[in-house]
Specification:
Elements (H helix, E strand, L loop, with lengths): L7 H6 L16 E2 L4 H11 L3 E2 L13 E3 L7 H10 L4 E3 L7 H9 L7 E3 L13 H7 L2 E8 L3 H4 L1 H11 L9 E4 L4 E6 L5 E6 L8 E6 L3 E5 L3 H18 L6 H13 L4
Parallel strand pairs: 1-2, 3-4, 4-5, 6-9
Antiparallel strand pairs: 6-10, 7-8, 8-9, 10-11
Length: 266
């Protein structure tokens, strides 16, 4: 795992105990990537026993699929065979860069809840308002969230937890976009009356933070635990399969992609 190419991953994994900290009742058994050498490298690092030669070879060999690719422009191509085959599928963030592509993927579902997609940060406990926090804030009037890197791949990391805080209801006004050389910001008015400001900071070194101000006061939430966010998201995907329940609603997805598309970098 030290040679995985992402130095942060070994650092958060080494803080866990396995198999105790894994997800019970689920195991990744097969892998495909676009390059056999890469497939072997990932399989060795992640203890995946089987490598397939083509991604559709997974059909009939596994019970569910993790589409762990963040090239959203290719999600329709890679997800379609599994959706048409009725297999539960977790599609990595962002699901799509446009509402049109998101609706195409959702329309391919053979049953409600077959498709699961979100930023795992939606499941980060530290990016959720506790009952004490909600009392401290009161009625939410203003939300400002920041995340580093680029809009297309990283804006979803603040969009999803902010929507989770506001609740999965309510529409937004037409977003206003401001861009500079390094930063893309979106400003929109939520139906509740809350102003929402999202800033994707490019190479400006900032933490992932959500500031919330309301009628009673304010709180700041800062992302801390990568492992727990990813585990919680994966566990909910697995639970949805076992329970045959909907964990990602169509409305939730489309509200996220609406904001994402507004600031999309062409």
């Amino acid at each position: 795992m030290e040679g995985c190419g992402f130095p942060g991953i070994p650092r958060y994994l080494e803080k866990q105990n396995f198999p105790e900290d894994g997800i019970q009742g689920a195991q990744v058994t097969h892998i495909w990537t676009q390059d056999l050498a890469l497939s072997k490298k990932v399989a060795q690092a992640s203890l995946i026993p089987h490598i397939v030669n083509h991604y559709t070879d997974l059909i009939g060999q596994v019970e569910a699929v993790l589409l762990a690719r963040d090239d959203a422009e290719n999600h329709v191509q890679f997800a379609s065979p599994f959706l048409k085959a009725g297999m539960p599928i977790y599609i990595d963030k962002p699901l799509a860069l446009t509402l049109a592509h998101a609706k195409t993927l959702l329309s391919l579902q053979q049953y409600p809840g077959q498709l699961f997609s979100c930023s795992a940060l939606r499941y980060a406990p530290e990016l959720q308002l506790s009952p004490v926090d909600r009392q401290r804030v009161g009625d939410i009037r203003y939300v400002h969230a920041t995340v580093p890197k680029d809009w297309n791949k990283y804006a979803i990391h603040i969009i999803d937890p902010v929507l989770n805080i506001l609740g999965d209801q309510g529409t937004f006004s037409t977003p206003q976009i401001t861009r500079s050389k390094h930063i893309t910001s979106l400003h929109a008015l939520h139906e509740s009356g809350a102003q929402v400001h999202l800033s994707v900071m490019g190479d400006t070194p900032v933490p992932i933070v959500i500031d919330i101000a309301g009628s009673n006061g304010c709180v700041q939430l800062q992302f801390q635990n990568t492992f727990m966010a990813f585990k919680n998201a994966l566990a909910d995907f697995v639970a949805g399969i076992a329970e045959k329940s909907i964990k990602t609603s169509t409305d939730q997805v489309l509200r996220s992609i609406y904001l994402l598309e507004a600031g999309e970098l062409q």
